[in-house]
Amino acid sequence: MRNYFTQIKENPKFLLIFSSILFFFTFSAFAQEKDQEVSKTIYFTANTGLEKESKTDEILSEIVKSSQQDKDAAIVVIGNITRKDGYPKNKKDRKKEEDFLTNSLLNPLKNFNGNVIFTPGKNEWNKGGHKNIDDLESFLQDNSKSEFWPNDGCPIERESLSDEVELVMIDSQWYIENWDDYPYLNNKCELKTREQFFAQFKDELKDEQNKTIIVAIHHPVLSANRKGFFGRMGGFSNQAYYNTQMQELVGRLESLASQFEDVIFVSGAHKNLQYLVDDGIPQIISGASGKIEKTRPEEDKGYFASNKNGFAKLIAYKDGNSLVEMYEVQDGKSTLVYTKEITRKKGKLEDFDYHTKDEFGSTYKASIYTEEETDKSNFHEWAWGDHYRDVYSKKIEAPVLFIDTLPNNMKASRAGGGNQSRTLRIANDEGREYNIRELRKSAVRFIQSTIQDHYVVDYMRNTLAEDIVLDFYTTAHPYAPFAVNGLSKNLNIYHANPKVVYVPKQKALGRFNESYGDKLYMLEEHVGDENKDFETFGNSDDIISTSDMLLEIQDNKDARIDEDEYIKARIFDMLIGDWDRHQDQWRWSKFEEDGKDIYKPIPRDRDQAFPKYDGPIISLLKIGVPALRVMQNYEPTIKNTKWFNLAGYPLDKNFINTSSWEDWKKQALYIQNNLSDEDIDNAFAELPKDTQDETIDQIKKTLKLRRENIVDITKDYFTYFKKFETVIGTNEDNKFLITRKDNGITKIEIEEDNEVIFSNEYDAKETKEIWVYGLDGDDEFKVEGDGNNPIKLKILGGEENDIYDFDRKAKTKVYDYKSKNNTFKNVGSKRLTDSYEINNYDPTRKKYSSNVVLPSLGFDPDAGFKVGLSNTFTTYGLARNPFSTQHTLSANYFSATQGFEFNYYGEFAHIFYNWNLGLDAKYTSANYAINFFGVGNGTSYDNDIDKDFNRVPIKQWHVAPSLIYRKNSTMKAYFKPSIESYEVDNSFNDFVSNFYDENNDIFEKQMYAGAEVGFNFNNKGSLIGYPRRGMELDLKAGYKSSINEDYDNQFTYLNPTVSFVYPIHESGAATIATRASADFILGDLGEDYEFYHAASVGGNESLRGFRNDRFLGETSFFHSTDLRVGITKFRTNFVPIRLGVTGGFDYGRVWVEGEDSNKIHTSYGGSVFLNGFNAFTANVGYYLSDEDNRLIFTLGFRF
Questions:
Q1: In angstroms, rounded to a whole number, what is the distance separating the alpha carbons of residues 1111 and 1121?
Q2: pTM (two decimals)
Q3: Which residues form the signal peptide (predicted)?
Q4: Range of the domain at 572
Q5: What CATH number is given to the structural domain containing 72?
Q6: What does the pLDDT look like over 746-804, one tens digit per residue?
């Protein structure tokens, strides 16, 4: 063979080709390198404080060595940097921990070439919690070049690592901790609730969506760790991956992250190396610094895991791509074992088709929906209503907008929008920002907002559920809200100036052409500080959000809400029928006047104005779903102002503190007198001509009529509003002087720095209860005065040390932390508790009640069809667990016996700390029936005999108060005394009449008194859905005794139950569900107790192939097991469906003294189920036994 280089030398043509190829690859490599320019290199490790089999020194040494080659690097140590006792409080132990941290962490990282960042994990919360975290933060930052985030024991912090990379750090231990253990938790944090945390996380992702966002969180949102038997079912520790609260946290974080691009989670709690992906969200785990935890990734999906020590490295490029590298460290050397490119490259203009200006005139005709989308059947229109459906498919002529024709080089900036809308922010060179919002709302965004624990957007597209939501959107007129700015102008209410435009796909949209353009949009000014000098925003000193403004008025005694302006705006909401007035629907113009900061409201997002809810289905849904009661048809008056104002009510309680009815009436009259018919006509005349049809005429007519009723509407809401009041201090030291005056008048004054910053009087005729919040600071509360008919007061001292001195104690109750030092000079009723929920001030918390009426339908072969109705009335006050009170009254009719039953259950929260008071009552008609087949494990059964023969008419009632301990949603315990009555009817020629002599005591009315204790742990979640894992442990024990003089029945009973749902596959697609239960009655059946108290098996809850209560005895046991397999998942026109089958087997028996029976009764069968999106399951089963076979339909699963 001739030498290769000889060919090049002797053949000039070959040489030319070779040189060209060489040049091409060299240039390509150079271009690729330039395109892949590194923005930041980040190293990740964790668990450096875990001493067992620690390899921290070797790992950090290799990281430091590698960083020397990086131009711009950072290291993030994601939790467990201290040893298991955290950062101790006492000096001796603290010094030891500081020496450990210095030697094992700070010294090894001294030469790291870049930023050093520490975040908290589980260990940092041990033995001191967030207060010691503050001290740890100070030590680390004082003794190294490092940063510790989130700081002050708060949950979230965001920092820029480069122009293209943002680091969002989350303290996941903060979320899963029991907040009642930390009286001063969050006192240095802006975020006070878990819901506020999720809202902040979403805002961080939204604000930085054009960058690579790294979320550093100790506990992973995804993991392939081997969990163990109990761990796979949720475990008992809050550290378990499938723990209920942990799944709530990681599910919601992943769901929120899935709505954005460029989000990468990095975690360290699990002690290994992993790379996983779910719904497009990458998860890196780098916690392999010591003893390793075993993991089992799905390698066929490209996932990775290493069970060796090491670290992770992420190279973030400027073009949006990233490269993950996993290194194993052994014997002081690191080896690259895995690489994975995370492709997040933004689309470029050339990737999309777009239009040019010469393709369009000045206007263009378009519609929001197609005609096919609004063409509904007559029945659909009758059931759901006409709405404004035709308006949505009507083409209108709108101005064409090319955004680069707007002043000062306007460009697309970032995507946005709320739970329904799709918005694009545009900005010019002067910093002015505008929004273009698509008039066609997103149904899948709304569905996602209601399903918070997992991502659903991609699965809900092109389904009937999406179609239903899109059709429901037609209840809101799409163009009428554009007249609101004209109405607002006449009333001097700040407002934006929206306009209808058609936005083609265009060059100026750039990469946003992928999702935006070729539709009708609303163009309006962004309500933000960059536009604060706009006249319609008040030409103010600043514009801030509601959350920021709430913090301002708590921190600054000189900050005030302009109550008159806010009341006017809220009455205007009622005038135009805009019920969706939650806190994000407001911005606030700030004015500095005479040393005070005055905030005036800017209402925004008026897309719910003038709604049309005209179908009977919506009216029916409101009966069972209180949240829908805000949706009231736009009519001359408001049927229920309480429910209409549900969204705005919490803000009203925060912002309207001193105004009387005269103040409200003044603003209502102002609106009435300053909004003429001509003003209304002129405002709507500004709409595009094609939109000015009969629907607009009807809206104008109704608006004029509602204007005439606005004083009465305002009075109705004011009456409800004044029943409950809140008074809120500041975070500084305040003095509260509360004076009880004559005729039910209570005066409250607040002083700060010897200045009265609040003063108001309350009348008992209007106000029934007042909550007074001291917030932070050393506050002093004094109650005096001898006035009659005082209003009920609840005083919450809040944080720091407070002084209470009450000369008048009637109807005044103090709430404060039990573990704090407070001064009680002269106080009557007080409740000292470390309950965070009670003591913490939450601006969204409101006192309210709701009533829900629901039908009840069912079928049982023994009882026949069941038809019933239940009514649940729930109140939410200050102390909740999870509500304040709840009362449920139900009535059911059974077709097989024509029997009735009436049930009542009531519960009253926090009678004692975490203890609720319950009351259970039941009454049945005389023809209400149960089954009786005799006593024993071998009783005979004739399938040819009519079912009525074994039915026993029994009239019964019982009343049982109880004390219920609820620690969380998964565990409860109770003590329940009871009294009950039974009366068996023997007037029929049935089995029971033949079994017992007619003079037997069983046919006499018998009454019993008793008591029961119970414990229940259940983390399976809803059985109506598709439980994929979990366990239930239940134990009941009790005693009952006859209280009739003629009878001496008495017995003790014990009923343990264990139930598991164990996932065979980690996804839960295949599970084994099993339940075992025993019932022990200590006594002789027939001598010490009657058959209706006996232990039994048979029926849907035990042996599914037998009739209910088929076998009775003194002791019973059954064990039911299902193998449940989801065969396939497929999309339907309704929702994504999981089709599955179950195979079930039951066995069990009863024991009676003296009976010689060894038979184990068995039944077997299976079912087919359809599960809709893990939310609901229709389950049809067929079960057989040697006596009978039964067809069973259930909603969900029995266990």
A1: 20
A2: 0.90
A3: 1-31
A4: 350-722
A5: 3.60.21.10
A6: 999 999 999 999 999 999 999 999 999 999 999 999 999 999 999 999 999 998 999 99
